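Changelog note: in this version the structure field was regenerated for every chain. One regenerated record is shown below for reference.
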Amino acid sequence: MRFTKMQGTGNDYVYVDCLAEPMPERPDELARKISDRHFGVGGDGLILICPSQKADARMRMFNADGSEAEMCGNGIRCVAKYVYDHGIARRSPLRIETGRGVLILDLEIADDRVRRVRVDMGEPILEPSRIPVDSSMFMPFPDNRIIDFRMDKFRKIPTRNGVLEPMGLDCRMTCVSMGNPHAVFFCENVSWIQLDIFGPYFENLPLFPQRTNVHIVQVKSRDEVIMRTWERGSGITLACGTGACAVCVAGVLTNRTGRNIIAHLPGGDLELQWNETDNHVYMTGEAVKVFSGEWNK
């Protein structure tokens, strides 16, 4: 099976062109094996590029633990690069089918190759039942949204060695879906938070029926943030595109940032805009091929 390793802002996945290769019989099992950074190719997961009846191609995304996710913002930029660079569809914008629906992607092309991609990520989802969040665990909140909701009872996180109290953390949480669920927390300094403990604790709370991605965010200015991510099913990653979009929305809703921001992630920067006219979130970032190979296991 031929594959291509690609990354967007350090969020790396193994891509299989299912227009040229047979569809894997067990993509969940393949994702676990091929994502292993010691015994496999290594990556944050597996992305299948499939035929579509309604778009230029269809993206299916599997986390490193084998679970299938609805969307991946960094992954879809790389899908667009593959589709254009390999001649599957030589146009801009491209239309890619995802678990979120069909998304529109504008390509920045240099030397006949895609370098950067601007993705229309659609409207943010804020209703608890659609994120989803179990709202029965909350007191009533304004406008049926979870915005800056106080999480004091989770201020102390139980661990094997006692209790963790995250330093400099604002214990208010904002929840957003960009086709997949996100919980956003703001803090004084992202380096103070033990994300390897904080992330999985919140990912697996009963509050989130389908688990959740977890983000900690440090605001530098109205148009600039630093963020770190624990991705549902993959753990700590260098970037999360849908998460950066959720952070942009959360910043506006809580009056911490403006509608146009740059998010600094360990893997690089993403440009975000929550457009007031159409209520859509737009994300711009790089798409990079790392290498291609053949998987024989």
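Spot check on this record: The helical segments are 27-35, 73-85, 195-203, 241-253. The chain has a mean pLDDT of 93.
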